[in-house]
Amino acid sequence: MILFQKFDVLLQAKYSTEMITDLDGLRLIVLAIGTVAILSAFVVQVYYYLHYFSAIIADNRKRKRNNLPAYSSHTPPVSVVICARNEENNLREFLPKVLEQDYPDFEVIVVNDASEDNTSQVLDEFAKLYPRLYVTNMPNDINIISRKKLAVTVGVKAAKNELLLLTDADCYPASKDWIRSMVSGVTDGIEFVVGYGDYITERSTINRLITYDTLFIAMQYMGFALRGKPYMAVGRNFLYRKYTFYKHKGFAGHLHIVSGDDDLLINKAGNATNTAVATRAESKTLSIAEPTMAKWLLQKSRHLTSSSLYTKSSRRRIGIEVVSRAIFYLLVVCGLVYADLYVSAFVLSLFVLRFAMQAVVINKTAKRLQSRRYSISILVFDIVLPVISLWLMLKQRIRKR
User: Fold this and answer.
1) Which partner from 37, 235, 273, 342 sits 20 to 30 angstroms from 124, CA to CA?
2) What is the share, in percent, of the chain residues with pLDDT greater than 70?
3) How far apart (Å, rounded) are the C-alpha atoms in residues 36 and 43?
4) Burial letters for 101-135: b for 16+ Cβ neighbours within 10 Å, e otherwise?
5) Sheet of 163-168: strands edge to edge?
């Protein structure tokens, strides 16, 4: 934009005809390059939203169009694995909702990770009331970076069933058909079922930010999986086979990082034929979001540590969307600042078209998943969240040096 302003000053100063011609030519070249760039970024964004991010909507439409049953009649035995460390209150409130699922054959294994509160007493009380509950304990004197991975491994070994359904102690199923809905995706050859881990909505800015981030990430990883490109899941709601866990040596290869207990296994072994996605609202889990920005940033930073270990194709696929988004917004700003009516009208029309498409896809997906809807805040979060992620990743790299 500064360059364009200099052009105008030069023209007003009545330079030579040759100089004016050169400047007009350069101006046209810059304008042509900018037009191609913003159109390319726009097309990439349209492709991602209509092909990947709207996949949950398309899957639900397909089910309705084909009149598919809500749940499969196939009900194989399931082992629900929950890791808990100092989760007394959450277990007391949420664990019964897992234990009282409407499913014929399942067990619930809670791995007590050396809790220092009354977690043990709560689990003892529930064990007397619920025969399905099995509790195993981890000692405190274990020197390992990710105790969560060890706890999950202990839970997997304790499970008596082939199908493992993982969630967290601070989560609860959205319905009594949670297990049934997640298992409905299991057919011959399916090793992973990816579910949605939502957050309880509250009236606060940080909660709106977190729930939007969670919804958009779900649209991304669930959409990619539905299009045959699975790359991650969330430990709050993830099903896989015990055979698959052992076949790929569990968490071997990334025990040196805190995160990765949920996404790195599917990133390594998931593909178009062995991964299913549970897109019904009944299949999701809910949990309480972090109450402050500082705690959420710490949580997000921890989750991002595993992204560097994703396959190159996964990182490239994610990166193309983020880069095209940044280019699009940058060129929209440049086009609006540039004092030319036609240029401004052109970029503004692209901006409005993209926002309309974005709002429709996001809110229709939220409706399908019975999650929170968004309006103008989409624009703010769409710009702010990638900046936050980039900042957190840069901080991690600086610390490693």
Assistant:
1) 235
2) 92
3) 10
4) bebeebbbbbbbbbbeeebbebbeebeeebebbbb
5) 133-138, 106-113, 78-84, 163-168, 238-241, 192-194, 275-277
The phi and psi torsions of 371 (rounded to 5 degrees) equal -115, 180
Distance CA 199, CA 72 (A): 27
The predicted pLDDT at position 28 comes to: 78
Distances (CA, A) of 204 to 293, 326, 371, 388: 11, 27, 16, 19
Model confidence, pTM:
0.90
Q: What does the pLDDT read at residue 2? A: 43
- Residues 6+ away with beta carbon under 8 Å from 70: 181, 184, 280, 282
Stretch 95-103: mean pLDDT: 97
**Inter-residue contact 116 to 86 (CB < 8 Å):** yes
pLDDT of residue 340: 79
Q: What's the whole-number mean pLDDT along residues 371-390?
A: 95
Q: In what order do the strands lie in the sheet with 285-287?
A: 171-173, 285-287, 197-199
pLDDT given for residue 142 in this prediction: 74
**More confident: 34 or 81:** 81
Of 59, 49, 52, 57, nearest to 276 by C-alpha is 59
- In the predicted model, is pLDDT for residue 140 greater than 90? no
Q: How far apart are CA 379 and CA 383, in angstroms?
A: 6
pLDDT computed for residue 3 by the predictor: 37
Six-digit token pair at 97?
Answer: 């909702």
